[in-house]
TrEMBL record:
This is Rieske 2Fe-2S domain-containing protein. The keyword Iron-sulfur applies. InterPro entries: Rieske_2Fe-2S, Rieske_2Fe-2S_sf, Rieske_Fe-S_prot, TAT_signal. The keyword Iron applies. Keywords: 2Fe-2S, Disulfide bond, Iron, Iron-sulfur, Metal-binding. Residues 70-167 form the Rieske domain. One of its GO terms (molecular function) is 2 iron, 2 sulfur cluster binding.
């Protein structure tokens, strides 16, 4: 005996399945989409591994990194309050040496930590100034005093030898905090 559930649906009333192509039915379902996304994420993660390994190697080995000594100036040639621009550690790394006062001198990377604008020495105010956004840095520590910069300037390690000042290294960011 035929009842409502067992009676076949007449073809003219089958509105829900008449447009499904059985051979291509599963190509756009949720499971296939999730498999594609997981595969793409795995491929992306695998492609970033070499860069992550290089970054980890740089971070782990940078404390033992050595820098060449570079003569900045003879102390007899400059006066307290003078500033000298030089390049260190590479030829494209701008740096600023300041002879603050007798027996006191400092050197920092010459790029603001906000947007890398060059930093200048204000002899009268005894501050390092970034003209782009009026940032100011303390000459003794390199820490920001005003403006948008939030991180200190990278400090260059100095050494006095035979009446001259040499740059011999760059302090890590963690050492400056």
């Amino acid at each position: 005996m035929e009842n409502e559930k067992t009676r076949p649906i007449p073809l003219k009333d089958d509105n829900y399945t008449h447009n499904i192509n059985r051979s291509n039915e599963r190509s756009l379902d949720r499971r296939s989409f999730m498999k594609t996304m997981v595969g793409a994420a795995g491929l992306f993660a695998a492609s970033t591994l070499p860069w992550g390994a290089l970054a980890a190697k740089e971070l782990m080995g940078s404390s033992s990194k050595t820098f060449p000594a570079q003569k900045i100036a003879n102390l007899s040639d400059i006066k307290p309050g003078d500033a000298i621009e030089f390049n260190y550690p590479g030829e494209h790394d701008s740096a600023l040496f300041v002879y603050v006062k007798e027996k006191e001198y400092k050197a920092y990377q010459n790029a603001c930590t906000h947007l890398r604008c060059p930093v200048f020495w204000d002899r009268d105010e005894k501050e390092l100034l970034c003209p782009c956004h009026h940032g100011k840095f303390d000459i003794a520590t390199g820490k920001p005093l005003a403006g948008p910069p939030r991180r200190p300037l990278p400090e260059i390690v100095l050494q006095e030898k035979d009446g001259a000042v040499y740059a011999v290294g760059v302090k890590r960011y963690e050492e400056q905090l």
